[in-house]
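Postdoc handover notes: sequence design on the structure in folder B. Input tokens:
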């Protein structure tokens, strides 16, 4: 297992899709995904779920994510999954691309304690590793490193965050 993981401890690489931006008080979590890594095992576990947002999904979000009102028609409510998501993240360092976005929504909708959890932002990592990059968007790095496009789906983007982070770490060896 990677030595940095042992020093950091249990990690959750998290991505969210939401119905809006943090400055929108009506914005809700639409999709949650976390890749769970533990230093004691070589197992990678995924936790992912759609979440019924309790309001119509804005057309711009439907175009960006491909998630429609019909897609979430049978999805659980946030109340139904909140405790399980909070438990999955408990005691973990949260890694995310543009981590303040996840911090805001996790702290607001999943558990207030998540607002003060330890977060590592892969944008910061990329700013150091690629100081001449024209931008620090995840999609720019997945395109240049892997020839793939960001899908704006939580599990895919969490996996892309892990792949970018691993590529940067491998290059630093």
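Designed sequence:
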């Amino acid at each position: 297992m990677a030595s940095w993981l042992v020093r950091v401890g249990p990690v959750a690489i998290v991505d969210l899709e939401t119905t809006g931006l943090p400055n929108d008080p009506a914005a809700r979590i639409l999709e949650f995904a976390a890749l769970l890594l533990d230093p004691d095992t070589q197992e990678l576990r995924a936790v992912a779920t759609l979440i019924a947002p309790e309001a119509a999904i804005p057309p711009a979000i439907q175009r960006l994510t491909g998630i429609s009102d019909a897609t979430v028609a049978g999805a659980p409510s946030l109340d139904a999954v909140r405790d399980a998501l909070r438990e999955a993240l408990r005691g973990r360092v949260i890694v995310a691309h543009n981590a303040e976005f996840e911090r805001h929504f996790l702290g607001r909708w999943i558990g207030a304690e998540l607002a003060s959890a330890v977060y590592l932002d892969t944008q910061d990592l990329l700013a150091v590793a690629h100081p001449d990059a024209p931008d620090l968007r995840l999609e720019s790095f997945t395109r240049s490193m892997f020839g793939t496009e960001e899908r704006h789906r939580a599990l895919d983007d969490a996996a892309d965050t892990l792949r970018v982070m691993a590529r940067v770490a491998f290059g630093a060896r």
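Context for whoever picks this up: Residues 154-171 form the longest helix (18 residues). Don't rerun without checking with the PI first.
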